[in-house]
Amino acid sequence: MAVSDAESTNEWPGAEGTARAEARADALTGAQADARTGTRSDPRTGAQGSVLVVDDDPTVSEVVAGYLERAGFSVRLAADGPTGLRAAEEHRPDLLVLDLMLPGMDGLEVCRRLRAGENGGRPVPVIMLTARGDEDDRILGLEVGADDYVTKPFSPRELVLRVRSVLRRARAAAPAGAPQGGPEGGPRLAVAGLVLDPAARRVHKEGRELALTLREFDLLAYFLRHPGQVCDRERLMREVWGWDFGDLSTVTVHVRRLRGKIEDDPGNPQLIRTVWGAGYRFEPAPDTGAEHAFRTEDGHA
């Protein structure tokens, strides 16, 4: 059972405690619906959106589904990689919760194939479930296109908060052809060979478009809007992720991945500097000063 100890002792007293039984009962609501596809409820009826949960542990799937459904989401379940990929391609959920270790095809390959098949269309946000301490797996997950990750054991309530946060940011993205400025506001920003367009949610470096995940884009946008400021990990988690709690290594991994995409030499970063003991500082132009290098695309400082 891959839930947190705190969840087991506080919310689920005993192996079959009352709260756990309620969560399981909620999760089993509509379980008779189309067992072949794993549909938990009609995807069109979820007021908060539709979520596909791909996990081979039926208890985890049932409990997670129960929490998501009580939060207003419609849920589909899949128990292996090939089934999950097929369900994601056929039903296009609003978000995918994807376990890393799956039979038939692991979560990394599912995510990789899903992204490859999107052909520039709006990507389905992916939250990857990984084992605690497996930083290499978390990095690989981000590299193949996951937007976030949750480490096992986890709290189902925290997962619901993560789902809401990722969906909120994904929905803030403007559709193709939207006016400049978009729902997130602000002009396009150009600095050190980077051009960030908030409306289109695209970033180019020296004319080449960068493949950034949802969180990487938001993190870069935050750095560009706060040049020269020292931002600790707690601040970044609060302002970029919208969380007041969570695993701060999430920020560390995302900064590392972002450096790998925007820095000329990620091993010796010049744009996102580490301020030891304090956090990170974005330096638009270490040699000439931020006031000369940071500008909107029309050339105004």
UniProtKB/TrEMBL annotation:
Keyword DNA-binding: yes
Region spans: Disordered: 1-51
Start-end of DNA-binding region: 186-284
One term of GO molecular function: DNA binding
Record-linked SUPFAM superfamilies: CheY-like
Residues the record lists as 4-aspartylphosphate modifications: 99
Transmembrane segments: none
Domain OmpR/PhoB-type: 186-284
Alphabetical list of CDD domains matching this protein: trans_reg_C
InterPro entries cross-referenced by the UniProt entry: CheY-like_superfamily (IPR011006), OmpR/PhoB-type_DNA-bd (IPR001867), Sig_transdc_resp-reg_receiver (IPR001789), WalR-like (IPR039420), WH-like_DNA-bd_sf (IPR036388)
Chain intervals with Polar residues compositional bias: 1-11
Gene3D superfamilies listed in its UniProt record: 3.40.50.2300, 6.10.250.690, Winged helix-like DNA-binding domain superfamily/Winged helix DNA-binding domain
Domain named Response regulatory: residues: 50-167
Keyword Transmembrane attached: no
Keyword annotations of the record: DNA-binding, Phosphoprotein, Transcription, Transcription regulation
Name of the featured protein: DNA-binding response regulator
Organism: Streptomyces nojiriensis
